[in-house]
Write a structure and sequence with these properties.
Chain lengths: 326, 494, 328
């Protein structure tokens, strides 16, 4: 019977394409995590509680959405967490130097854009592999943040700014709304527009893309810039949430953000993946983390579980993609 | 060592790609294998070298039945495969490249440098190659790398060498060098199986030729007792119709669409000047490495050049990008299909529409899937491309059909100038003649074509004029009426 | 001299020159920099990172990367700490053996996941980085290993002299470095490692067991990180689950890359890696002398690694131009 199923799927490429997908694994895992969490605490049966728990993770979620596009294009950006910290520090520094809040935020986001473009230029013009380049810049950006802020916590923001996340429309926190809308827009761009299509083609074969007239370098530069830009936004949001900016903010965030992307079924070598998967993975991480928090499992042990999940996620994704190649 | 195969067959998932091959190889002979792509000769050779295991039949070495299940097993039995594109360790020395994988000792044993350096020198000398074995592999020419691979085979005491289209990346000088080595190997009793598409070369080096067609071995004959025409006949099972150059109906207009003046790229070519007219097929002949592809890439804008001018429809253009060239109607079909021509794991439709984003999306960039399908369907039907559906992955198609897809992709952008770089490489004879028709049709419609090809008969049957390049510069430009294979070769060689 | 050889020599000379510049510059500013104490500080700071760098170098030559080494170090340090608490008479040799085995095991897990499931090592080790760190917390129960828990003979391994007033930690590091050099340059498996990194397809065709080689390099990298865990306990006198080894992977990788090992595989030398680590160590010690706040260290390291990467690409670009000349 299995053989028949295999043959049927082989003959029907469209069906095979829609059924054998890593995203369904993500949906499956989401259902499992909801069930498990409800066991851990009845709070999880309440939608409002889940939405509330999601708020602190929206910063990472926004970046994960963009990182999905970076990885689809065949590159990677590991400097995201350091960019969060650096832009937050710049935000705090400017504010404490007397600039008003919106201007400081603007500068921070601009700084993020510049950091991202720096990554992009070194990858596209100097042809440095992004994996090692962003390992270098993650050190550099975090280092600049430390040099600027030392061990100080940069605070002093007006009370309307702090906890900007905890505003609601109905039962839905505003950050979650922003995240959903953002994911929707990017998802549509990626799946239905020519820009998204070209991103996939670049990730599949950059040489052919160049010879087909696709502006590979420009597009990659743009994507890296976006990655920096959104990290800047996350930096400002994070400062609002924590009320202070420190150089060691978002330590370890690389893992959580990459986890969201990988858990969503994005192929690390480029050319495959989508926003829907990352979106689902975001909720898996939210529910899992909150569930573990509620069950009083220490942060460090949570790390173990997240680490294990990342490994399982890539193994499964790879396996599924290698099967669907046949 | 004598090799004999009886009834060798191979099928993949129930599909028979090779049937009942009886084959024999005598020590010291050069035995050529010919056949169209997909005829089975590559599969057969992969079985002999252990890459595939046969589904049926047996192999006998010196009258003893043997199993060759892995490449290593084949090597141990004395059969070595020399690849078309040599696989080298560019960071290691020549001697290490020769001996990697079979040095004396295991794991933590000391490498006996003097030993392998001396032995390498010996082997290299024995085939007339004068390279210092301690030299790092990086930077050596493909010809040298190939010979070092041969040296590697010799270092393992191989008795049978299988060469898969070894002459494609070589200049005629290098081919001569290779053939000298082959004759020496013959004298040492080593047998060579030689796959090639070039009948002239086969005639000069081979003792016997075996012809494959559609998975069957058709016939084996002494090279002296079969003519080229007969070989082709056996290969394709039908007579090949001769193509004649058709008249350029736009010749009277004398409209220059592309004009190149003194184009130079310091390490690749210099002083390239020519004009291309509407409706003209301009052939570019020359040896591999003469610089034709570099010129094409510089005109197309995917590579930079250092000085000179390019005029497109009378307007001067600078170092543009592929994107700009395409939008101006100048397109390029690359030589290397796999690396630069196709998006392998992507649907045929998406491949075909990848250069015309404006045709398939609206002002906001939203893709119109219906357009994608209909535009592709057009060309799939027009060119009779064989596939299961437009959504099939392009890499599952045969070489010839892939090439048809790529041509369709470029035609969708409605070019006035089409640069074709080895368009029939890796394409079997049937599809080849279909492509010649397509090319002729295009020129009839007014498209100007630059045809880069290493197959002289191809150029002679299509091109109105022929530019011959030699070592980075143009040595002559011929009218087709005054051209012949000999004249072109004279202009292409030193 | 063959072009590639030349390039490697240039690289090592280049780092050496930078080292000399920093040393001379710092000495001019403050002569105390040349003092015995400064050099002692440098020499004692680097063995830990140097030993880990040897393993990482092998991994990077094979076109992989292992960012979990900090967690491997912490885990083996915790384990040996717990062993010391139970068995204070554990000999140095036994301690080395235990940490080596623990580290090798964790390294092999990395290698197994990479080879068996054909997944990218950066993501795998990003996962195990957290997985192993979590295990450190679980095993230690969150509490720190203190100085009293560590036997005296272990502490003295890195403080007092063994031979010719050289602390044992330096001797062992030197031995490891020399062994690595011998294996990489002159043993069969070493050359097969370079071959695998240079062209994995060709390596496979030539009969090299690529899986075995990959497992080997990950195992060795883990083993050396494990031994570094013992160095840590000895040198610093404590092991803290939340602090030990955190962030060390990037310093190690920085040193390896600066030393000329390319992320694209197939090249890299022990001498270069040593010089790269030495440079980082010297900068670390020179900072206070030059009155640069310690908080700037990370930024400086970051600048150097990005500069080294940029320089590498520039050199490759130049070499292509030089070599690309067919006809002029």
């Amino acid at each position: 019977m299995f053989n028949n199923l295999n043959k049927y799927l082989s003959d029907n490429p469209t069906l095979r394409y829609w059924i054998i997908r890593p995203e369904w694994v993500a949906v499956f895992l989401l259902i499992i995590s909801i069930i498990v969490s409800i066991q851990l605490s009845p709070f999880f049966a309440d939608m409002a509680f889940i939405l509330d728990s999601a708020t602190p993770y929206v910063e990472y979620g926004l970046i994960a959405i963009i990182l999905t596009m970076v990885i689809i294009s065949g590159e990677i950006d590991l400097s995201i967490a350091s960019m969060i910290a650096l832009t937050a520090v710049i935000f705090g520094t400017f504010f404490n130097a007397g600039y008003n809040l919106p201007i400081s935020a603007l500068f921070a986001i601009l700084a993020g854009l510049l950091c991202g473009l720096f990554n992009g230029i070194l990858v596209t013009k100097l042809k440095i592999p992004s994996i090692i380049l962003t390992i270098g810049t993650l050190t550099l950006y975090r280092g600049i943040a430390q040099a600027m802020a030392s061990d100080f916590s940069l605070g002093g923001y007006p009370s309307w700014f702090v906890g900007i996340d905890y505003r609601y429309i109905g039962i839905v926190p505003i950050p979650v709304i922003i995240f959903v809308i953002f994911s929707l827009i990017v998802g549509i761009v990626l799946s239905s527009t020519i820009y998204g299509k070209q991103l996939y083609l670049i990730g599949t074969n950059p040489e052919t893309a160049k010879y087909s007239g696709i502006k590979v370098d420009k597009i990659k530069l743009l994507i890296f810039g976006l990655s920096g830009l959104i990290s800047g936004v996350a930096g400002v949001l994070g400062t609002s949430r924590l009320a202070v900016a420190r150089f060691n903010m978002a330590t370890g965030a690389e893992l959580e953000i990459v986890l969201m992307v990988m858990l969503g079924g994005t192929y690390i070598f480029g050319g495959r993946g989508n926003i829907f998967g990352t979106f689902i993975a975001f909720w898996i991480v939210v529910i899992l983390r909150s569930g573990l928090n509620v069950a009083n499992i220490k942060i460090e042990s949570q790390l173990t579980i997240l680490g294990a999940m990342l490994i399982i996620a890539i193994i499964l994704t790879n396996y599924i993609y290698s099967k669907s190649q046949k | 060592m004598q090799l004999l195969t009886k009834n060798i067959g191979k099928s993949f998932s129930g599909v028979n790609v090779l049937r009942n091959v009886d084959f024999d190889l005598i020590p010291g002979e050069v035995h050529a294998l010919v056949g169209e792509n997909g005829a089975g000769k590559s599969t057969f050779v992969k079985i002999l070298s252990g890459v595939y295991a046969p589904t049926s039949g047996k192999i006998l070495l010196d009258s003893k039945e043997t199993e060759i299940n892995t490449p290593i097993a084949a090597q141990k039995k004395g059969i070595a495969l020399i690849h078309q594109e040599p696989q080298s360790f560019s960071h290691l020395s020549v001697a290490e490249n020769i001996f990697m994988g079979h040095m004396e000792g295991k794991f933590f044993s000391r490498v006996r440098w003097q030993n392998i350096n001396n032995k390498s020198k010996e082997i290299l000398n024995s085939i007339g190659l004068n390279i210092d074995p301690k030299k790092i592999m990086e930077g050596l020419s493909i010809a040298d790398q190939q010979m070092i691979e041969i040296a590697g085979a010799l270092s393992k005491n191989s008795k049978i060498l299988i060469m898969d289209e070894p002459t494609s990346p070589l200049t005629p000088n290098e081919v001569n060098k290779l053939f000298k080595i082959v004759s020496q190997l013959k004298k040492r009793g080593i047998a060579i199986v030689f796959i090639s598409h070039r009948l002239e070369e086969i005639r000069s080096i081979a003792d016997r030729v075996t012809i494959f067609r559609d998975g069957d071995k058709i016939i084996t004959k002494n090279i002296d007792s079969i003519s080229n025409v007969e070989i082709i006949k056996y290969m394709i099972g039908r007579d090949l119709k001769k193509t004649e150059v058709s008249e350029n109906i736009y010749a009277k207009e004398k409209k220059v669409v592309l004009s190149v003046k003194n184009l130079t790229s310091y390490s690749k070519f210099r002083d390239i000047s020519f004009d291309l007219h509407k409706g003209e097929i301009l052939g570019f002949a020359g040896l591999v490495g003469a610089g034709r592809t570099d010129v094409a890439k510089s005109i197309f804008g995917s590579e930079k050049y250092d000085s000179g001018q390019i005029f497109l429809y009378g307007n001067k253009t600078k170092n543009e990008s592929p994107h700009n060239s395409i939008s101006r109607g100048l397109v390029y079909l690359p030589e290397d299909r796999k690396q630069m021509g196709i998006f392998g794991q992507v649907a045929v439709e998406d491949n075909m529409t990848s250069s015309v984003p404006n045709l398939i999306s609206n002002a906001f960039g939203i893709i119109n899937k219906k357009n994608v399908t209909s535009l592709s369907k057009n060309y799939i039907e027009k060119f009779k491309i064989i596939l299961t559906s437009g959504r099939q992955l392009i890499e599952e198609l045969s070489g010839g059909n892939q090439q048809k897809c790529i041509i369709s992709k470029w035609l969708l952008s409605n070019p006035s100038i089409l640069i074709l770089d080895e368009p029939t490489r890796g394409v079997d004879i049937g599809v080849k003649s279909e492509m010649y028709d397509i090319i002729k049709q295009l020129s009839q419609n007014g498209t100007a074509i630059i045809l880069i090809s290493s197959e002289l008969p191809e150029i002679l049957s299509l091109a109105h004029r022929i530019v011959v390049m030699r070592e980075g510069h143009i040595s002559n430009t011929l009218d087709h009426k005054n051209a012949s294979q000999e004249i072109i070769m004279q202009n292409a060689i030193n | 001299m063959p072009l590639f050889d030349k390039f490697l020599r240039i690289r090592e000379l280049g780092i050496l020159s930078i080292i000399l510049i920093v040393v001379i510059g710092a000495s001019i500013i403050d002569i105390r920099f040349l003092s015995y104490d400064s050099w002692r500080a440098v020499l004692l700071a680097i063995p830990l990172i140097l030993v880990m760098a040897m393993g990482q170098m092998m991994v990077i030559i094979c076109r992989h990367v292992d960012i979990s080494i900090g967690s491997i170090l912490a885990f083996s340090a915790i384990i040996i700490g717990l062993v010391f608490i139970q068995f204070p008479n554990t000999s140095l040799l036994a301690a080395i053996f235990i940490t080596a085995i623990v580290g090798a095991f964790l390294g092999l897990v990395n290698g197994l996941i990479v080879t068996k499931f054909n997944v990218h090592s950066i993501i795998v080790t990003l996962g195990t980085l957290s997985l192993y760190r979590g295990l450190v917390f679980i095993v230690s129960g969150g509490r720190q290993i203190d100085r009293n828990d560590i036997p005296l003979h272990i502490i003295s391994f890195s403080q007092t002299s063994y031979i010719f007033s050289i602390p044992g930690i330096l001797i062992l590091s030197t031995v490891i470095v020399l062994l690595t050099h011998l294996i990489m340059k002159h043993s069969i498996i070493g050359r097969e490692i370079y071959a695998t990194g240079s062209n994995p397809t060709a390596a496979h065709l030539k009969g090299i067991n690529v899986t075995k080689i990959t497992l080997f390099v990950f195992g060795v990298c883990g083993m050396l990180s494990g031994i570094a865990g013992l160095f840590y306990a000895s040198r610093f006198g404590y092991v803290n689950p939340g602090v030990t080894g955190v962030g060390i992977e990037f310093i190690v990788i920085a040193g390896v890359i600066i030393g000329g090992t390319s992320i694209t595989g197939g090249s890299g030398s022990v001498l270069g890696t040593f010089l790269g680590i030495l440079l980082l160590g010297i900068i670390n010690v020179a900072l206070p002398v030059l009155n640069i706040p310690g908080g700037y260290q990370k930024a400086i390291y970051g600048i150097i690694i990005v500069a080294a990467l940029a320089l590498d690409q520039f050199i490759i670009y130049r070499m292509k131009i030089i070599r690309g000349s067919k006809y002029v």
